[in-house]
Automatic annotation (TrEMBL):
The gene is rpsB. GO terms for biological process: translation. HAMAP family: Ribosomal_uS2_B. GO terms for molecular function: structural constituent of ribosome. This is Small ribosomal subunit protein uS2. Signal peptide: none annotated. CDD domains: RPS2. Keywords: Coiled coil, Ribonucleoprotein, Ribosomal protein.
Length: 227
């Protein structure tokens, strides 16, 4: 019998994978069939994997641990930010800067620079700056804010990462693994599920699919806080 969650996943298009010629062989265990050259993901497997990921994140939440949400592809940007804010956690949704985890000292310097730029009008040198200099610094502030706003108060490495797209966020995932940070990843049919700790097989290109999976993770994290 098809349950409510699987019905929701079908409606959100979670089951649609990539073209069969782009598949990763390690995803075979999570695939049901192919239709018109598109792989169909087995949503019963998705549900099992989602349950495991929810249990893992709920346990972290109960212990007050830090979770970093990462999703820089256009379809994921807003949903990732909303998920992080809903759980009072952290996010990167514009661009992953190399070394965001493995070179935290440089990132902290950039955050300090952002703090300085945001208080530029209070700096003693502000009055002597030209309009051109101020405009250039404002562009720098906007760029730093886009890249760092979601992690500026994280204060060190997270205890886990949630990423949208194993292929798109491969640099972030590799950095997390170098630091032994476990990762939960919405993993489409073109990516290697064995390269992440908690793969969730599903469509990582559709906004509705991304939002549905994230909503379940958010519910698990917030539910554990209240338990």
């Amino acid at each position: 019998m098809i349950n409510e969650l699987i019905t929701e996943m079908v409606e959100a298009g979670v089951h649609f994978g990539h073209q069969t010629r782009k598949w990763h062989p390690n995803m075979k265990k999570y695939l049901l069939a192919d239709k018109n050259g598109i792989h169909i993901i087995n949503l019963e497997e998705t549900e099992k994997c989602l349950d495991k990921a929810c249990e893992f994140l709920a346990d972290l939440s109960r212990r007050g641990k830090k979770i970093l949400f990462v999703g820089c592809k256009r379809q994921a940007q807003e949903a990732v930010k909303e998920a992080a804010e809903a759980t009072e956690q952290y996010y990167v949704n514009h661009r992953w800067l190399g070394g965001m985890l493995t070179n935290m000292a440089t990132i902290k310097k950039s955050i300090a620079r952002l703090d300085w730029l945001e208080n530029l009008d209070k700096q003693p040198e502000f009055k002597s700056m030209s309009k051109k200099e101020i405009a250039a610094l404002d562009r720098e502030r906007a760029k730093l804010s886009r890249n760092l706003q979601g992690i500026r108060n994280m204060g060190g490495s997270p205890d886990a990462m949630v990423a949208i797209g194993a292929d798109h966020e491969d640099i972030a995932i590799r950095e997390a693994h170098r630091l032994n940070i476990p990762v939960v990843v919405l993993t489409d049919s073109n990516a290697n599920p064995d390269a992440v700790d908690y793969p969730i097989p599903g469509n990582d290109d559709a906004v509705r699919s991304i939002r549905l999976i994230l909503s379940r993770l958010v519910a698990a994290i917030n539910g554990a806080k209240q338990a």
